[in-house]
Amino acid sequence: MPGETRWNSFYSMCDSILKTQKALQILAVKYEPPLLENRHKPGSNLTLPREIFEIIMSDIFWDQLVHIVKILEPYCKLLNIL
């Protein structure tokens, strides 16, 4: 994270991503890339880059995001009061 972090913005972004988890995973499955990356040819099916697909389908990614939201939530509530 950058040095001057806007914690509420970061919290909102993480929370928003969590709320769209199922939709993102459905989209990732629909546009799953082949195991071997090929150059995209005109007229061929669109796919996600493998790295993005693996992140969206990773349980570790989603678990870490849940932890980040749980940690930041009380701080952001406090910052909203100040």
Describe this structure in words.
With 82 residues, the chain is mainly α. It has one domain (11-32, 46-81). It contains four helices and no strands. The longest helix has 23 residues, at 59-81. It is elongated and about 55 Å long.
Broad structural category: mainly alpha
Count of extended strands:
0
The multimeric state of the shown protein is: single chain
Taken in chain order, the helices and strands follow as: HHHH
Radius of gyration: 17 Å
Main beta sheet: none
Distance between the termini: 22 Å
Mean pLDDT over the residues: 87
Fraction of residues in helix: 55-70%
Shape: elongated
Uncertain runs are none
Topology:
Layout: H1 7-19, H2 21-30, H3 50-56, H4 59-81
Note the main attributes of this structure.
1855_t:CDS:1; mainly alpha; 4 helices; elongated
Give a short summary of the structure.
The protein is mainly α and 82 residues long.
